[in-house]
Amino acid sequence: MKRETLYRLWCLCGVALAVLLAFSGCLWGRKPNPGGTQGELDRRLVTASNDLGFRLYAQLAKQGGESNIFISPTSIGLALAMTYNGAEGTTKEAMAKALGLEGMTLEEVNKANGQLLGLLRDPDPKVQLAAANSLWGRQGFTFNEGFMQRNQDIYGAEVSSLDFQAASSADTINNWVSEHTRGKIPTVVTPDALREALLLLINAIYFKGEWSVQFDKSQTQDGPFTRLDGTQKTMPMMRQKDEFQYLATEEFQALSLPYGNEAVSMYLFLPKAQAGLPDFIKGLTRENWDKWMEQFADSEGTIVLPRFKADYKTSLKQALCGLGMGVAFTEGADFSGMLPSDAQARIEGKPYLTDAIHKTMLEVNEEGTEAAAVTVIGVGITAVSREFNMVVDHPFFLAIGDNRTGALLFMGSIVDPQ
């Protein structure tokens, strides 16, 4: 299957479901409800998380061309929030700006994320939704006690120490990821990626929801799906006629497909122009999303949707640098908050982010949707280089000395070697 096969609708499903995951902790009904359970959660965090998702999506869309894109803003936000607890100075300022956390103290960020994690626990009998966090440190290395304790107490992170030189360590981490994504993401790290690591901060999210009204399998028929370049392929197309939350503008049609008791929904946005997705993406912002969410209304109609599944994996490093936190990935990064106060006297080098790996899967069928995401933030330590490059290609001075007595036996300058 070509990577661009489902791009037109798949990217939109990806954005919709990823943002859905970020909002699901707020227990949406058929429309966002600013009261009730939602009031327990600091809305600034939700706004920041969703805004980060849209901005990251825009960056990845620039990189990805006509490829499928599917991300979880919630998973990314939680993994980076744990990392943020160890940032200091200009690195902390850059991360706060990139993550949209300016104006919130670290305590407020942590409290809100703790509330979000509490709300992300199976909001509906027909919806499974769970998030898990873990920290994996290099064996023999001591980290700042407060940094580790906050991640344990607030984010529920499991903390483990591993010998990153052993190949089995990658298996241990991958087994944890597989367990917390119900086997849907079996691998995410390799032994080579671990060998230079100091610390890994990982978030995993699993989602499985049954449609409130399932699609009738007998109504599923093969039909054409047109790619951005105009070519077509045949896909199994599910069909359902009912009353939906629906929105139509001059540019697109949009539909809400709820799960279970409608606490969670998938939102589909279909540009009216066959190749209109790139233009739609340009206007895909958190502000517009919030506006659209208020405009959905009950309407009878028919939805025809492909039955499909796909996987996605990317490095977020370039995208995060594009959002302004590039300093975190350089040797000038300040993550001294991860280290004990006397660590710099005992170790050589400084911690910095080596990469941010994001991996997801999605399956949509007649019964519902299954999705999983994992975000791995890699922390390395800068090497103190003892290598040098001395090219004697111009006049120079030399001396020959006796190291036992210190006597200089010869000395001179060479300006025209023969």
Task: Describe the overall structure.
The chain is an alpha+beta fold. It has a domain at 7-211 and 308-381: Antithrombin, Chain I, domain 2 (2-Layer Sandwich). The chain has twelve helices and 13 strands. It has helices spanning 7-24, 43-64, 73-84, 89-99, 106-119, 145-153, 168-180, 191-194, 277-282, 286-293, 317-325, 343-346; strands at 127-138, 158-162, 197-210, 221-226, 232-248, 252-259, 264-271, 297-306, 308-315, 351-364, 368-381, 396-401, 408-414. The strands form three sheets. Strands 2-1-3-11-10-9 form a six-stranded mixed sheet, with helices on both faces. Strands 4, 5, 6, 7 and 8 form a five-stranded antiparallel sheet that branches. Strands 12-13 form a two-stranded antiparallel ribbon. Helix 2 (43-64) packs across helix 11 and helix 4 (89-99) packs across helix 11 (317-325). The longest helix is centred in the first third of the chain and has 22 residues, at 43-64. The radius of gyration is 26 Å and the shape is globular.
